[in-house]
Amino acid sequence: MGKFRSSSSSIKILALGNGRLRIAFDLIYPYIDGNGEMSANLGQMEGRAAIEGDTAVFKSDEFGRCRITLKFIRPGTLTVLQKGNDCGFGHNVTADGTFRRVSKLKPKF
To answer: What is the pTM (predicted TM-score) of this model?
Structure first.
């Protein structure tokens, strides 16, 4: 599957077979702080997702009810929708967005 990127955030995806994926989220919310300096809030999570057809669903209850849907919309592109704010990411950090594949190599976790 490979590595997907949207601005500075990235998602690693590895097909495990039998309708399962291994996924790692490395997300960032960049901003300018009160002193005019660049800063960022971060969010990371790793686990397994179930995939059916072109849609995978990642679930975690570690920090609350976290559901992230990944839809492969065309080769090399996926859209991501996070339901709820209970994924344990930093302030304003979300998995939402459109990600483009940047590598076809097997990702390292």
So the answer is: 0.86
